[in-house]
Predict the 3D structure of the following.
Amino acid sequence: MLDAYGNPWTYRLKWLYLLSVVFALLLPSFYIIYISFNEHGFGARIYEFTFDWYRVVLGDTMLVASLKWTAYLALATMSTAVPMALLAAKFYRRARRKVLFVTLMLSPLFVPADIMGSSLLVYFKHLNAACTALAAALGTDWLASWFELGFVTALIGQVVYTMPYAFIVILITMSRYRTQQTEAARACGATAWQAFWQVEFPQIRVGVFSSCAFVAILSFNEATRTALLKGGFDTFSNVLVSQMLNVGMSEESYAMAGTMSIVAMVAIGSILVYTLARSERLEREARARAEPVMSR
Amino acid sequence: MARGAVNARGAGRGGTTAGPPRPSWRQRVLGENGLQRWVFYLPAAFMILFLAVPAALTLVWSFFERTTFWMEPGFTLFAYENFFYSARAVNYLHSMLHSLAAVVVSFVIGFPIAVFVRRRVPQAAQHRVVLLFILPFMISELVRVFAMRPVLGRYGLINTFLMDLGIISEPISAILFTPLGVIIGDVLSFLPFMVFSGFLAMEAVQRYIFEVCDDLGAPAVRTFRDVIIPLAAPGIFAGSVFIFVNALGTALVPTILGGPGAVNAGLIANQAIVALDFPLAMAISAIMIVTLVTLLYIGHRLFDLTRILEPIS
């Protein structure tokens, strides 16, 4: 495996292996999409292509309501997690105790969904009790339901979960940015905000927008933490889980799972294509700029 | 340095005798030494408030006494006794073994990919190749795990395919609703992380090191064992801990692919919450958190895990 420089076939075999692993990882999702378009569902000998199951999903008012809640939650998570991740990445670059900070920021990656969800559930119940008691003592309703299980608690759970991903993506983009440019801008009289918005942000914009998409998809897909923290409303993933566990895999469930897969694939595929096209364009431009210099 | 530049400008404008002009209250509150400075602490404060504090309190709540619907302050080891002196502890140990198996399989499948990409793929294309693994990872874990049922099931894709080819005469039933199904589910769910962390660790390994090994005629196995593994150890360890802990704590996989009797720590915690036994749920969460912190601490002491982040720092 490791000394295959001279043998093109070994090299090709390694590529084949890599692509086979990617294919194996994607196969179940593709298969579920394939089934979701079959009029006769899973296991049928005949395959007849249809959009009917998707029409059923989009015609179900409960599912459409859950899709709306999912979209609101994804939007709110994105609007909260990405700016915070950006602040965290900027803070990390100049932090003195990097290890402590990065441990804090990345530890949600290592805490399983059920464990984090259970801890937060009990934490919010305690916080809610404390806030209610405080509100009663102060004679105001203002504090009373801050941490009652609902949209806000689900949002907090999702922000804790998604922020590390956004943090890593932004940090990777920021690593290519040279801080001397900010210093130059400041020396020319720019305020901190101007230096960030007009000099730094255009260069890390791709990372910020990519992290927006990642966070939105992660939020759209998330089920476990949300199920524990959401209170009274349902998200699309939660409806899907309860359908799958209570009713089993119906044709409608396949269409729901297919919807989730297609949304994620289209979103991530677009980002990948855009990122690759952009890096190709930047490389071309850099080559074009370098050529006159090289020819001198 | 930026602040220095501002001071230098201020001194230049105001002269040495008058000094810089006194900032207005608005500048003091909203300026760079006011809110603008403190706003950078917001993510850390958020994580402390909603991650570190609940995690620490989990340990405290695990000693609380159970009431009918909730729990009350006190000190009792009942939740731990309930866990360790029951079938739950045995199930927990079994799920640890399954998680360990998932780590080994993920390493065997995923790490060679990270090494191959780093060693043989042209530098400019390396990140693009790794990005291929983002796509499966970004599809909902719920969908990916559920989608394995029609693939691995008795009349699923694999069995149908093998039977159509005539390789088997009757469906294999050992790959779904068995521990093997759980391990397959864990590997397919978390394998991309081994590739990501392995690649990140391999990025810190200079390419000339491989050329030196080739020039010295080191056999592939020796290069792998004595050069690549020690240099990539932080990434391998981080990826392994991620897979181990998540395989141990994600209830979805045993629920969907394990069949009756299959459990892991996450599922036990979930069942405890459904049964309104909150101290037990907290005890299991505390055990998981302590396991995680201990593993990361040992890993950091042995391999210095911050080395993984060197390429992006």
The radius of gyration of chain A is 24 Å. The mean pLDDT of chain A is 89.
